[in-house]
């Protein structure tokens, strides 16, 4: 774009499936053990990252910037069994931020909001029937933060 305006894009397309694989699902031992054609665990068909940032220079070399980043991940299964209980639907997360940097970037102050839309999604899901059941490890909810940095 321009030195001030930067657009980043990253795309990953996967077709990750078992060619030939057999294993018994401990949660459903009577199911067919042939997993051929099933997707590999934690392998989205599509992952997308879009970023946009804009920076401008002030007097005495002070620089201000704003940014936004969106990441999307399509549906994944967290086990080799193609089990709906351990499946996470596709989801997207939006982060935004702003910063100010001193001359030669010796200091900076940043403010950010991650997961701006408060998207609820699992980073991992584990199914351990019948004792524990299904446990979800959730992604971070919306949160606001700040950082202050000084370089010697």
Automatic annotation (TrEMBL):
SUPFAM superfamilies from the UniProt entry: Porins
Compartments (UniProt record): Cell outer membrane
Main localization (coarse): membrane
Presence of the UniProt keyword Cell membrane in the record: no
Keywords attached to this entry: Cell outer membrane, Ion transport, Iron, Iron transport, Membrane, TonB box, Transmembrane, Transmembrane beta strand, Transport
Topology versus the membrane: Multi-pass membrane protein
Domain TonB-dependent receptor-like beta-barrel: residue ranges: 20-116
GO biological process: iron ion transport
GO cellular component, one term: cell outer membrane
Pfam families to which the protein is assigned, alphabetical: TonB_dep_Rec_b-barrel (PF00593)
Cited InterPro entries: Beta-barrel_TonB, Beta-barrel_TonB_sf, TonB-dep_rcpt-like, TonB_rcpt_CS
Domain of life: Bacteria
Matching PANTHER family: FERRICHROME IRON RECEPTOR-RELATED, TONB-DEPENDENT OUTER MEMBRANE RECEPTOR
Record-given protein name: TonB-dependent receptor-like beta-barrel domain-containing protein
Organism, scientific name: Solemya pervernicosa gill symbiont
Upper classification of the organism: Bacteria, Pseudomonadati, Pseudomonadota, Gammaproteobacteria, sulfur-oxidizing symbionts
